[in-house]
From TrEMBL:
Residues 46-306 form the ATP-grasp domain. SUPFAM superfamilies: Glutathione synthetase ATP-binding domain-like (SSF56059). This is Alpha-L-glutamate ligase-like protein. Signal peptide: none annotated. It comes from Pseudomonas thivervalensis.
Length: 328
């Protein structure tokens, strides 16, 4: 037991945030329960983002009841690729990504052939709440399928890589690139076997990665290096993430974004309870950074100053960026 406490004290000294501290000091403190539906329901998030002029994957249609499943043909129309997902799903569960059509059927991004009836059955399962938070009845949304930017071709297996930035009161504090693998079934979900790669906030340069709780520098499927990759549009990603504070009103969030090869940076979803593995990917604790932001907020409040999105991003990049590359 003494050894455990000694180890935990060492982690605390490095600013490593545990789940209890995250919940008590940040989620409960900065996130009003009344605002949770804005981020827990992807349709509401998308509608708010569109109203704010923030780019998101185009919404083709929504199915809310079993009777509306008959609208599926009309919503899909002649499209050869699209995504079906639960509005209140979590962890990537319940998402079907259609990449093409084949002989009257559909081909998923992993190559599996499924029928229209199977898609209808899946939508029905979404409506029953099979994939929703708390098992409540849900809605299914059909939207644009993101085509990843070519920069990810050598460091990702199928699926769509995404970028998560944790934001405290509008200040980005830590970023991570999540890369699908064969193990994760092409999903950018760390718990299912995706790779988490730290990202330098100032430059958008990738750092080392973590995969199945191991530190890595190469993608297990492509064998290409995941560190030292320059992410394009980085300042744009940082400003998008910082602006999501005004979008949803929640003070502590994870902002998930993607880079489409045609449409550029897009907001995918927001998370009111972002996970803590991002610390492993960055080899850095969240607490020291969040304390620095809170100190900044106190200072500004005393002066009666409110910073713009650009000023918040500049502060975060100056204080938390320019991480030296990890020695191999």
């Amino acid at each position: 037991m003494f050894g455990f406490w000694k180890t935990w004290k060492a982690l605390e000294a490095r600013g490593i945030m545990g789940i209890n501290r995250r919940n008590a000091d940040y989620v409960l403190k900065y996130n009003k329960r009344s605002l949770y539906p804005i981020v827990d329901d992807k349709i509401i998030t998308k509608e708010r983002a569109i109203a704010a002029g923030i780019h998101v994957p185009e919404l083709y249609g929504v199915i809310s009841t079993e009777k509306e499943i008959d609208k599926l043909d009309e919503i899909i129309g002649g499209r050869t690729d699209f995504v079906i997902k639960p509005a209140q799903g979590a962890g990537g569960d319940g998402i079907i990504v259609i990449a093409d059509r084949f002989e009257g059927r559909y081909r998923t991004v992993s190559g599996k052939i499924i029928s229209h009836e199977e898609i209808e059955h899946h939508v029905s399962s979404i409506l029953t709440g099979l994939y929703s938070l708390g098992g409540h009845r849900d809605r299914a949304l059909i939207e644009y399928r993101v085509t990843p930017d070519q920069i990810f071709k050598s460091i990702s297996y199928e699926g769509v890589p995404d970028i998560r930035i944790i934001v405290l009161m509008g200040y980005p504090v830590m970023a991570m690139l999540r890369l699908p693998t064969r193990q994760s079934g092409g999903k950018a979900n760390l718990h299912q076997g995706a790779i988490g790669v730290g990202v330098d906030l100032a430059t958008g340069l990738t750092l080392r990665g973590t995969w199945l709780n191991n530190i890595i520098t190469k993608h297990p499927d492509t064998t290409n290096a995941v560190d030292g990759v320059q992410l394009p549009y980085w300042d744009g990603f940082m400003k998008l993430a910082a602006g999501c504070y005004e979008l949803c009103g929640l003070g502590y969030i994870g902002v998930d974004m993607v880079l489409d090869q045609e449409k550029g940076p897009l907001i995918l979803e927001l998370n009111a309870r972002p996970g803590l593995n991002i610390q492993i990917a960055n080899d850095c604790g969240l607490t020291l950074r969040t304390h620095a932001v809170e100190a900044r907020l106190e200072e500004l409040q005393a002066r009666g100053v409110i910073e713009t999105v650009e000023e918040r991003v500049a502060f975060a990049q100056e204080l938390f960026g320019h991480i030296p590359p990890v020695e191999g």
